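Suppose you are handed a protein chain with no further information: no name, no annotation, nothing but its sequence. What can you learn? This example shows the usual starting point.
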Amino acid sequence: MMGVPCLNGAVAIARSRDKLRALQLLTRKDIDVPVTVCARSPKDMDMMLELVGGTPVIVKLQQGTQGIGVMIAETRQAVSSLLETLWGMGQDIIVQQYIAEAKGRDVRAFVVGNRVVAAMRRSAKAGEFRSNLHRGGEGQRVHLNDEYKRAAVAATKVMGLEVAGVDMLESSTGPKILEINSSPGLEGIERSTSVDVADKIIARAERYVERRGQRATDAVIDAERRARRLQSSVTPSGSSRGPAASDRSRSR
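A reasonable first move is to predict its three-dimensional structure. Written in structure tokens, the prediction is:
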């Protein structure tokens, strides 16, 4: 509203932070994600577990970052207890398929301007299934193949983001998008990959502002041209008074 350029807009950020909505948008574009179900009643539990392939399952709050609000339930009873507790607290949750072959690892691809500029594989610490660095996970630089790069860039485009951290699982059928982070941290990815990601973001921002400024300049020029054309089509006030004055002088 203030005219300040921003790489990631408010709508795109809100879209990516709602995990269920983000996954719906991805699947609509045929981008692979773990099977995900949203349920609001205990009576739906058996169908929900069947849809995601049975236990264990991943239970997530619909909004959350850095692994906060992500839990694993290994039995039906654990799922029931966990969901009843979260529902009782008024939380919106999703239940997700557990990808066993990922083995507590995922890939974070950092996308800037429709290009993967850095990527790391994150591994969970012993006794933990979440691989987030904030949860004690370790990151190691990884060179992604084209399939994983395309998936990360496509997911970012669907969200409408210029800068994003895309989390993917390495499954037996290829990359599965877990989530898209619209405000990804830089410390972990730069330390793990030795890539100056901040510099990539700044360069993208400079090009964005340059293009935006050029468009704004063109708009100003067009407005000035329209004003001049309008002014030239109107008879000057001085010349309009001349004939009137001469008419009055003849009448006298």
